[in-house]
Fold this protein.
Amino acid sequence: MAQSSSTLVKIAPTLATPPSTSGPQTYALFVGMANGHPDGYLFGVEGDLPLVVDELAARSTKTVSVITDLTVQVTGDGARALPPTLQCVKNTIEEVGQALGPGDILYVYVGGHIEVENEETSFMPLPNEERLYGNVLGSWLKAAAGRGGTITAVVDVCHSTAFLKMPVVYDVKTDGSLYHPNSEAREAQGREGHVIIISSTECGQLARSVGIDQGKYVGSHGFFTWLFFNYIQKKSGPVDTAGLLLYLRKQCNWHEQKPRPQISATTAGLRQLPIGRPSS
């Protein structure tokens, strides 16, 4: 039987300063499930929660929504804890989608265990035997971006490209130039929104963890999550897509299991990603 933990995770995130009251708005959603793995409790999800919510809040003008099976204590108005149900995930994304327009951004983080049924379908187990299917989540995200906003999802799970991937796959040459190995790629155009997926692993690969023994976020973390947020932590404004992918691939290649990060999107030509902190 899988283990569980009664650890109370305390978070006190601070929203972007000063919060924007007009103009483009930024939203954030954390979806993390520490239970559901047949081998036991995922301590990396527990360790990632404060780090990820802090980083999302630093880029957000709106309260960060946290959907998790962890026991969470929130201080301040930077975040709100919501029930870990399928309906809650759907409602939260739809609610943001109703407000998301051109220039607006939604950040989504997904962490937890993934079960692969076949090459086309995989899901994240939720409490009470509910399942969050990746293809369903992808359809919700694309619908939410339909009014012209940009949704960027960071996905640190096993088999992450099997769980959630958009049609246009980005790759990078040794000279640092981007290209699209799949024939479906097309240039971004018009006022339609974008969905961007930054994935930790390819299908068939397991997500890895790392132990951090000093600093503010001591504990177990997702290896990819730690690399990703350390890279963007001090960056402001848009982040170079090729530079980010090269960095993640190089760092992950040092791991003996060599997990291979991937970036995919609904459109081609996204040479910069809106994932840095707001410029002061």
In short: The chain has a mean pLDDT of 89. Residues 168 and 183 are 8 Å apart (CA to CA). The first strand starts at residue 8 and ends at 11.
